[in-house]
Amino acid sequence: MSTPHLVEGQFFQPLSSKSRAARLRVEPCEEGLFVTAILEDGDETAPLAVDDLQAEGCLHFAGGCYFKADRPLPQEIASLFKSRTQRRIARLEAFSLPKALALGLALILCVLAFRAAIPLAASGIAAALPDRLERMIGEQAYASMKVTGFADSGIPPERQQELRRRAAALAETARLTRRPEIFFHRSALFGANALALPGGPIVVTDELVALLGSDDAVLAVIAHEMAHVERRHALQQVLNVAGAAAMASVVLGVDDSMIEELSATLINVWSFKNSRDYEKEADLIGLDILRAAKLDPRLFLTAIEKLTLQGCADLAGDALARCRDKSVAVETGWMSTHPAAKDRLGYLRAAIGG
Ligand SMILES: [Zn+2]
């Protein structure tokens, strides 16, 4: 062992701004450097592992304590530290690239697994849930919506019965496995709308019937809603949101309100995207249901056009043109949970072939 170097300075405990006068004892040894601090009262610290040497003779040690030399370190001592910290840094750098790659890859895999797992879990759980349970969820939802959002229908009972009979015939010819019940309601809250609840109560509003004008057009929208029921979309949607919320609370934690808000936003965006996928599927199956019954699939396209442009009904001339352009470009009302009108009209026209 060679003679130790002694450096005068101040010694700081971890996270403390209060220093104590000390002498740093630096001694080269087989493992590199043997470093301790001898405090003013004569106490000597345990061996210190040097983490970093900064300018001005400031030495950081593993564990958080550090030493500030009273004068710039003599070259011979500084070089001892430098070679040691540089070796350490070089070692870290050599490891950091593969390590960073591995970490990055692991993170990407986690995110992908997380994103893929939820819809898979939802469709898996949906498939495993008995129909009876799904109907219970839907009936419960319908019962509470009837209180808050639906009033008695003004559509004559005979017309309602005729629409129900024709809808049942559609389900029959398309060989659907689920035969949903259809209810008509007046609804200021939902406006011109149709909804498919889990297990299949389908609700059609008086406002929609009035807007579309013909029963054939109403049936075209009912075919779309029956496709949602057949594919159990509403149930999967419920499970997606519930599952995503539960997973997000586990992964992101529930304590931090900012993170909670962020995760809620993410879930919304996500379920929104999911609902658009379901909408497209229901649109295309709905067209098949109409074709099977020898009904013109253009009925559905016309219904979507009417729904898209319903806000423009009382306008004329330039105002009408502007309203049409805007309605097709933005998503409002019923359209907000559906694919953007422009995309939707586009793929419907392509599917119908005209
Ligand atoms: Zn839909």
Please characterize this protein's 3D structure.
With 354 residues, the chain is α+β, with helices and mostly antiparallel strands. The chain has 2 domains: 5-90; 129-352, no CATH class. It has 10 helices and 10 strands. The strands form 2 sheets. It has a 6-stranded antiparallel β-sheet with strand order 3-2-1-6-5-4. Strands 7-8-10-9 form a 4-stranded mixed β-sheet. A hairpin with a 3-residue loop joins strand 4 and strand 5. Helix 1 (75-128) runs antiparallel to helix 6 and helix 3 crosses helix 5. The model has no long low-confidence stretch (mean pLDDT 79). It binds zinc ion.
Biggest β-sheet description? 6 strands, antiparallel
Rounded radius of gyration (Å): 35 Å
Strand order of the largest sheet: 3-2-1-6-5-4
Order of helices and strands: EEEEEEHHEHEEEHHHHHHH
Mean pLDDT: 79
Helix segment tally: 10
Silhouette: elongated
Count up the domains.
Answer: 2
Q: Runs with pLDDT <50, length 5+?
A: none
Straight-line N-to-C gap: 92 Å
What ligands can be seen in this structure?
zinc ion
Q: Helix coverage percent of residues? A: 55-70%
Structural class: alpha+beta
Strand content: 15-25%
Strands, total number: 10
What is the oligomer described by this structure?
single chain
